[in-house]
Amino acid sequence: MTSLVWKPATAHPELMAPSTAAAVEGLSFADEVEAVAIDPAISDTAALVAATGLDPADSANCVIVAGKRDGVERVAALLVLANTRADINNVVRRHLDVRKISFMAMDDAVSRSGMEYGGITPIGLPQEWPVLVDAAVLQRSSIVIGSGIRAGKLRLPGARAAELPNVTVIDSMARIVDA
């Protein structure tokens, strides 16, 4: 089992994508955000949980979705607990008011976010992208999220996710995945 040694994120910008490091500096609760270096091979949630014993309910995944309405693309980031699955076809689609929605292609998500696949985080995304947070995320004492790169993770109080830029909290946006 790999143990994680958390450090103040503001003192370790090398553990984050440049846009993430800049965004963390601007948070009113920046002193509550911690960073950790990890082996990029365990960046994906399942591998991180297996290697560290982290509770999947304390890990939150950020995925990028896109849809169109009247020829205009609407993009959003979703933050959901790792033991849940976002209801993109109903809840998210209606919230974004699009006819059809899907996960953004990996290459597009990486190039447009400026972050590495497996490390995408709601902190430091393009300002025009709304961040939709499942209300269950706020109930966790802390959550582990990406840092924008595969070689790092961030940890912050779950309730603070509601204070991230461009956030809308949505009740029941995600459902627990059957084990």
Automatic annotation (TrEMBL):
Pfam families: tRNA_edit. Signal peptide: none annotated. It comes from the Bacteria. Residues 40-159 form the YbaK/aminoacyl-tRNA synthetase-associated domain. This is YbaK/EbsC family protein. It comes from Branchiibius cervicis. The lineage of its organism: Bacteria, Bacillati, Actinomycetota, Actinomycetes, Micrococcales.
